[in-house]
Amino acid sequence: MVQKVAVITGSSKGLGYAIARQLAQKQDIQVVLTSRNQQDGFAAQQKLANENMQVNYHPLDVTNDASVQEFATWLEQSYGRVDILVNNAGVNPTMEPEESSLFTVQMETMLATFTTNVVAVARITQALLPLMKANNYGRIVNVSTEMASLTSMGSDYYPLAPSYRLSKIGLNGLTAILAKELAGTNILVNAYSPGWMQTDMGGSNAPYTADEGAETAVYLATLPEGGAQGKFFAEMRKFGGAIALPW
Question: Residue 226: what pLDDT?
Fold first, then answer.
């Protein structure tokens, strides 16, 4: 059996770790953990090994061109393929006081957030797509948020969070464009909202766990041929199944 190779960015803890753990439980998937901090990455790898899940780890900074290119080369040399890419690494400065209004948001913060949440996703996706195209198989999952839905933005109850919202709107646009470019192939690209979870980013007061937030990512990462393409999904627990949201 040839295992599918799954890369999850920012997967040493939180949602990324939960996604990696759930994918690693599937016998036909070889998971590659990634993180900027090698100590955290190796600790996560060992934690999964203690549960009899043999995952690999490689350092990766998706905001750095050299790091991404080195990682892509390592993947090609090690596996010769990439089948699943979950773009989970991101930043969320919502709790900063300046993020309470578009009138006070700092341009440096907005630019840094966009660089990580959009440009870095484009960078790693661009680097790994050739390995997907070689086998005409790929599943790309972009971790977004319901806060990026333009349809409901005028009436939702979430914080204004301009830097985070605008970056995830950009990520949703990237998802739609990439899906259009890959139409007719067996490389499926979708975005989803994991909801408010108990992670470093979400805080301990969040109503759901990272494992619950990972469910939709795993669903999209393992879509069958002819599955959803260019859609924006809610977390599955919210509606009891995979439901596409309006952009």
Answer: 95
CATH number assigned to the domain comprising residue 11: 3.40.50.720
What's residue 195's pLDDT? 76
Does 246 reside within a domain?
A: no
- How many domains are contained in the chain? 1
**Tell me, what's the pLDDT at 210?**
80
Interior angle at CA 239, CA 236 and CA 86, nearest 5: 20
Q: What is the largest CA-CA distance in the chain?
A: 56
Terminal Cα distance for the chain, rounded: 38
Q: Which domain holds residue 27?
A: 4-239
Q: How confident is the model over 28-49, as pLDDT tens digits?
A: 999 999 999 999 999 999 999 9
Say how far apart CA 34 and CA 45 lie, in whole Å: 10
244: in domain: no
Q: How far apart, in whole angstroms, are the C-alpha atoms of residue 135 and residue 145?
A: 30
Is 176 part of a structural domain of the chain? yes
d(CA 224, CA 215): 16
User: Among 3, 45, 56, which residue's Cα sits nearest to residue 27?
Assistant: 3
Q: What is the pLDDT of residue 61?
A: 98
Whether the model pTM is above 0.90:
yes
Contact in structure between 241 and 153 (CB atoms under 8 Å): no
Question: Which residue in the list 164, 192, 208, 219 is annotated as catalytic?
Answer: 164
Query: Is 17 one of the catalytic residues?
Result: no
